[in-house]
Specification:
Rossmann fold, 6-stranded parallel sheet, alpha/beta, 12 strands, binds NADPH dihydro-nicotinamide-adenine-dinucleotide phosphate, 39% helix, 287 residues
């Protein structure tokens, strides 16, 4: 039995919706394993209630929070400070409350890079990358790859204007070239580019609904042997993008490792302790 008392430190998740989130299981397992009198609770304020939710963090002395879709950008003006990385990403996924002053961090990008390096044995500086999507996850992944030495990347999206925006930002902020390709079947220029890439990352929500394999605008043989196909989607654990890549002999991974690593970094910012990684990983894998 967990007993909370007047000294319990409360952490929260702010998103809309949050029912699907694996973070409460992961963070509560970490607190328990570290022997901390702390608890992590999900809340789902709609966009128009975000300012009140942040005021609530201050008023109730909530020690920290994770922020997820759709609040990662909107929360910025409501905070007192931003880390340089959160500023570069233009998005916050972690809030630390120190004596009433709220600092916004971003652990998504670093979490992704750690997942590549430590869980997939992949060096982001080792070759070019193709990123599918141009939403929040794609922006974090593209920036993180560029910051970690990726020599160049292709951004593929239905709305090319959104991809152009990320490409411009990656070039301006980090000086890495990003080419934009339209998401359309039989895109030959993309096929040539993708053939040479070391990494392909699905940052669209396609795998979540399943059954949309044919939608990837790649020749059948890609992703293929010698390439890593990383899907930021983790539910289902074996996504359509991964299944396609596996059939072609590519290495594959789902987004659980990114979720784990970004969560471990949040835990470390909140507590100053080393995150109990294996406990957190087990909590995710049991979901
Ligand atoms: P957004 O809503 O910001 O972006 C969604 C992207 O998917 C857009 O680029 C959109 O294209 C594209 N897309 C959606 N449906 C289709 C389709 N049928 N065909 C082609 N493109 C499509 O979402 P996020 O970037 O925040 O999240 C994307 C996924 O990443 C989610 O599944 C989320 O759960 C996961 N995620 C995982 C994380 C982890 O830690 N593992 C962290 C963050 C996110 P368009 O712009 O043309 O509409």
């Amino acid at each position: 039995i967990v007993i909370f008392d007047g000294k319990t430190r409360v952490y929260s998740l702010l998103g809309y919706p949050v029912e699907h989130s694996f973070s409460p299981a992961m963070q509560n397992a970490a607190f328990k394993s570290a022997g901390l009198n702390s608890v992590y609770v999900p809340f789902s304020p709609e966009s128009e209630k975000l300012a009140a939710a942040i005021a609530g963090i201050r008023a109730l002395g909530i020690a920290g929070a994770n922020v997820t879709v759709p609040h990662k950008e909107a929360v910025i003006p409501l905070l007192d400070n931003l880390t340089e990385i959160a500023m570069t990403y233009g998005a916050v996924n972690t809030i630390v409350n120190r004596g009433g002053s709220l600092t916004g961090h971003n652990t998504d990008g670093e979490g992704f890079i750690q997942a590549l390096k430590k869980d997939c044995g992949f060096d982001p500086a080792g070759g070019t990358a193709v990123v599918f999507g141009a939403g929040g996850a794609a922006r974090a992944v593209a920036l993180a790859l560029a910051r970690s030495g990726c020599p160049g990347m292709a951004l593929v999206n239905r709305s090319t204007a959104k991809a152009e925006k990320i490409a411009g930002f990656v070039c301006e902020a980090i000086g890495v070239q990003a080419e934009v390709f339209e998401w359309k079947a039989g895109n030959k220029e993309l096929a040539v580019w993708a053939q040479k890439a070391a990494l392909m990352v699905n940052c669209t929500s396609i795998g979540m609904s399943g059954g949309a394999e044919a939608a990837f605008p790649l020749p059948d043989e890609l992703p293929g042997s010698g390439q890593l196909a990383y899907d930021v989607v983790y539910n289902p654990t074996h996504t359509v993008f991964m299944q396609r890549a596996e059939r072609n002999g590519a290495a594959t991974a789902n987004g659980l490792s990114m979720l784990l690593r970004q969560g471990a970094l949040s835990f470390e910012f909140w507590t100053g302790l080393t995150a109990p990684l294996e406990v957190m990983r087990n909590a995710l894998e049991l979901r």
